[in-house]
What does this fold into?
Amino acid sequence: MLHPVVAGVDGSPQSMTAAEWAAREAGLRGRPLRILCAREALPREAEAALGPQEEYRWAEERLLRLERRVRERHPDLPVDVRREPDSPVQSLLDQDAELLVLGSRGLTGMVGHLMGSVSLAVVGRSERPVVLVRAGYDPGAPEHGVVAVGFDYHHEAEEPVRFAYEAAAARGARVRAVHVWDAQRAYGWATIPQDMEVLDAYEGPARRYLADAVAPWRERYPEVETVEEVVRGNAGPGLIAAGAGTDLLVAGHRVRGKGRASPLGHVTHAVLHHAPCPVAVVPHG
It folds into this structure.
């Protein structure tokens, strides 16, 4: 049995956008699509404008419209639409999913995402990869052919890197392997020189680390082109910048145990709020 790509929807524009991204991703992976609408997930703007008797009709109409659009654009894709009476968080966590896809209401420029409580709760507790898609994503636009993933010798994990390579292989894209290094963190404030030529020489260990870290993945996925990119600065802004012009930016999330909420690290948190592209958060031990 193939596990589906599951899109959580509540009738809001960002969730509809996420569902269309999920449909495209399901097609690339050869997986069925499941559109999940939890009853408690009605957005606030609808609650304020509609009376209790109209809420269900509002959500149902938008859900049916979404289903028709997805089936028209992806006629060969198996689509399963489910309506759950339980809370949206638990409904999503209970899914036998390949990955979960949720919408994220974005703001202009680098101000970032307004992360909802459902999105944060699911990301923090999910044992499966979760993709957050900005409301401004255009499901009909051509892809860039790049999947970016960060490498950090302080927090090494295979799962996010494997996810990035599998996503790249599915879409015929290349992987942008990114390592962000902070000169002051590596060598200390008092010792690091500010001369750019000397800084370039100091960058040598960072480049060697990235080359060594990427080497086994090149062997495992010879069909996927890998581009190495060493970025100088802080990890959060560095990864956010590396995500520009990519189809997907992959970040890791260390989980504490099955079913337990695990707080997001500051780098993953920054990427979720500010990256301009869809972001996959991949749990690992």
